[in-house]
């Protein structure tokens, strides 16, 4: 049985038993009970979850009846560390924060793209080159998380934490975020009475969550005050996200009463999204490429094309190596984009999404929803349903995204919920895609990477689809 019903505890033991492999378990639940299933919690303290992986329900919840499905109080409590930022807000507060974020992202868009190329060229590629020389194995997922952290950190604060240095420093902030995320995951799979008791007693993962919170607050206060000092220096032009939020605060009295808390809450979610989700997307995309040499060869072919156009062959100059592509030049590559979308389909960085019903409703598949119901939307399980992606749904096949004329099948994007959908769709989607593509193109083009034999790659039980034991690889040069 995929779910065993227990007296008093109902379905909770099955959830606990499968917590370590929750995403694959949700696939089994969908195959056994259909694409929508109510998971019942103990009768004395309800924690019912309505699980769904039906794209019609996703559309309804994300778009058509958006106003009935906020993140809700349950989400707010579980993600309390995020404060009042965009991730953790609903209704008017969300609306206000989202439009500020949009303005901040728009005005810093080209800065982030430039930064991306610079980081790959000056930090990521040289670091990987150093592994060619010593020919020892390295954890590529760890390097990717360092790259995404450094990049988003500079985009937000205008200074680098230098995690891509050769001595692999452990950054206090990154570690605190890992601890907090882990505790938040366990809040989802245990009963709220339990984790609240652990919080009260300050034990286990809840104790680490509290310590992580303190560390994050302390470091945030430092970064914010440093930025304010920078801004006071005359003639000091700042181009980073935090400076944009400080500017908003000056212009709109509305946010000034909150002091630095407004600034902290505004940027904290971006740091986590920029580092963890983008790092996960990058790692799984690369893993798929490594497991499918034919895909790698086709991507190389596309890259070679633009390389020949951009480098200076006509003047018979020796082409520069290592070569890093301009993010803008990668945008038109159909196969490369298809390969990334296909990786995001099978390995969505955010495998589940969570909403709460405000009023009674009926979902498009006929399921009745009571007010207050928590809905878990499994993006991971949806990718593995034959009725949606066909008999070959479990295979990694970039070709499914390309039509007979060689054009990208835009209509498939309606079934790819890796970035959410509707008014709350990921605000950093373009930035995330640019970060991933710039790194992957440079690595595939300049290096020949091999998975270490015998090292298995598994997803970690977490809200972000990171890898359990990393991705150990050997780095060799692509060209002698
Ligand atoms: C490939 C990388 C990324 C993936 C797969 C991803 C995925 C997602 C998903 C699934 C959501 C939830 C949508 C919902 O609640 O319905 C989301 C929201 C969000 N993401 Fe991303 N994200 C990525 C990169 C980024 C980056 C780089 C940033 C910013 C630096 C970012 C900022 C945000 C923000 C601010 C939201 C909240 C939007 C809202 O609630 O209105 N994301 N993202």
UniProtKB/TrEMBL annotation:
<keyword id="KW-0349">Heme</keyword>
<dbReference type="Pfam" id="PF00067">
    <property type="entry name" value="p450"/>
</dbReference>
<dbReference type="GO" id="GO:0004497">
    <property type="term" value="F:monooxygenase activity"/>
</dbReference>
<dbReference type="InterPro" id="IPR002401">
    <property type="entry name" value="Cyt_P450_E_grp-I"/>
</dbReference>
<comment type="similarity">
    <text>Belongs to the cytochrome P450 family.</text>
</comment>
<feature type="binding site" description="axial binding residue">
    <location>
        <position position="426"/>
    </location>
    <ligand>
        <name>heme</name>
    </ligand>
</feature>
<protein>
    <recommendedName>
        <fullName>Cytochrome P450</fullName>
    </recommendedName>
</protein>
<keyword id="KW-0560">Oxidoreductase</keyword>
<keyword id="KW-0732">Signal</keyword>
<dbReference type="InterPro" id="IPR036396">
    <property type="entry name" value="Cyt_P450_sf"/>
</dbReference>
<dbReference type="GO" id="GO:0016705">
    <property type="term" value="F:oxidoreductase activity, acting on paired donors, with incorporation or reduction of molecular oxygen"/>
</dbReference>
<keyword id="KW-0503">Monooxygenase</keyword>
<keyword id="KW-0408">Iron</keyword>
<keyword id="KW-0479">Metal-binding</keyword>
<dbReference type="GO" id="GO:0020037">
    <property type="term" value="F:heme binding"/>
</dbReference>
<dbReference type="GO" id="GO:0005506">
    <property type="term" value="F:iron ion binding"/>
</dbReference>
<dbReference type="GO" id="GO:0044550">
    <property type="term" value="P:secondary metabolite biosynthetic process"/>
</dbReference>
<dbReference type="InterPro" id="IPR001128">
    <property type="entry name" value="Cyt_P450"/>
</dbReference>
<dbReference type="GO" id="GO:0006629">
    <property type="term" value="P:lipid metabolic process"/>
</dbReference>
<dbReference type="InterPro" id="IPR017972">
    <property type="entry name" value="Cyt_P450_CS"/>
</dbReference>
């Amino acid at each position: 049985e995929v779910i065993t019903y227990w007296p008093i505890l109902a379905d909770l033991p099955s959830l606990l038993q499968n917590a370590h492999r929750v995403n694959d378990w949700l696939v089994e639940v969908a195959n056994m009970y259909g694409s929508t299933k109510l998971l019942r919690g103990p009768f004395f303290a309800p924690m019912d979850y309505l699980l769904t992986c039906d794209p019609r329900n996703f559309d309804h919840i994300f778009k058509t009846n958006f106003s009935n499905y906020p993140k809700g109080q349950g989400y707010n409590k579980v993600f309390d560390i995020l404060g009042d930022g965009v991730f953790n807000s609903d209704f008017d507060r969300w609306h206000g924060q989202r439009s500020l974020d949009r303005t901040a992202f728009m005005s810093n868009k080209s800065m982030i793209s430039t930064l991306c190329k610079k980081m790959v060229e000056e930090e990521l590629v040289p670091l990987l080159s150093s592994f060619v020389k010593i020919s020892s194995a390295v954890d590529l997922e760890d390097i990717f998380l360092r790259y995404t952290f450094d990049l988003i950190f500079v985009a937000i604060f205008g200074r680098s934490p230098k995690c891509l240095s050769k001595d692999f420093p452990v950054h206090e902030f990154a570690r605190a975020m890992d601890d907090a995320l882990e505790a938040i995951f366990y809040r989802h799979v245990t009963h709220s009475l339990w984790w609240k008791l652990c919080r009260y007693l300050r034990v286990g993962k809840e104790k680490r969550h509290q310590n992580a919170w303190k560390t994050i607050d302390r470091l945030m206060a430092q970064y914010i005050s440093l930025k304010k000092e920078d801004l006071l220096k005359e003639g000091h032009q700042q181009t980073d996200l935090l400076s944009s939020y400080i500017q908003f605060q000056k212009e709109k009295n509305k946010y000034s009463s909150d002091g630095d808390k407004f600034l902290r809450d505004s940027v904290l979610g971006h740091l986590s999204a920029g580092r963890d989700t983008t790092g996960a997307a990058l790692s799984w995309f690369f893993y798929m490429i490594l497991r499918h040499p034919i895909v790698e060869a086709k991507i190389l072919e596309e890259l070679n094309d633009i390389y020949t156009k951009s480098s200076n062959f006509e003047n018979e100059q020796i082409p520069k190596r290592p070569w890093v592509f301009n993010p803008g030049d990668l945008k038109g590559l159909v196969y490369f984009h298809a390969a990334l979308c296909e990786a995001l389909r099978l390995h969505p960085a955010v495998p589940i999404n969570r909403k709460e019903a405000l009023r009674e409703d009926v979902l498009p598949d006929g399921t009745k929803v009571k007010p207050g119901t928590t809905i878990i939307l499994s993006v991971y399980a949806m990718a593995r349903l034959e009725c949606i992606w066909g008999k070959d749904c479990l295979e990694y096949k970039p070709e499914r995204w390309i039509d007979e004329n060689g054009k990208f099948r835009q209509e498939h994007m309606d079934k790819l919920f890796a970035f959410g959908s509707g008014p709350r769709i990921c605000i950093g989607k373009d930035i995330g895609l640019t970060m991933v593509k710039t790194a992957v193109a440079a690595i595939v083009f300049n290096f020949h990477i091999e998975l270490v034999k015998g090292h298995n790659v598994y997803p970690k039980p977490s809200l972000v689809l990171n890898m359990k034991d990393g991705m150990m690889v050997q780095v060799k040069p692509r060209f002698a």
